[in-house]
Amino acid sequence: MSSAITPDQLVEAVAVFLRERVLPTAEGDLAFDTRVAANALDLVCRAMRQPAAVEAAHCARLSALLGESGTRDHLDALLCDRIQSGVFDETCDALVEHLRAAAIDALRVDQPRYSALRRALEA
């Protein structure tokens, strides 16, 4: 087993340092900026820890919907083009399900304590 620190552990350690060592002594704008920086590092850490399965599921849903394969960026761009051209709209159940799943995945990283996310996961 390697004893090397992983990148996500390093990011987490910096966030803890900011919260536990810097924030208690900071005031005003510096306290606010420190809180923002620590929260940004938390977001980066959650993104780094997001399982590869989430990315694979995103691409699989899009491949099934679009009938094409490719990178996430390619498939997202293709989906946008098809929505813009009117091929897909809100009446397409597979599109709505994909967008709902993608929003939930994004909220898990961006706002994991968001009340609507908790309700969606409970449903």
TrEMBL record:
Domain DUF6285: 24-114
Domain of life of the native organism: Bacteria
InterPro entries: DUF6285
A Pfam family the protein falls into: DUF6285
Record-given protein name: DUF6285 domain-containing protein
Source organism: Hephaestia caeni
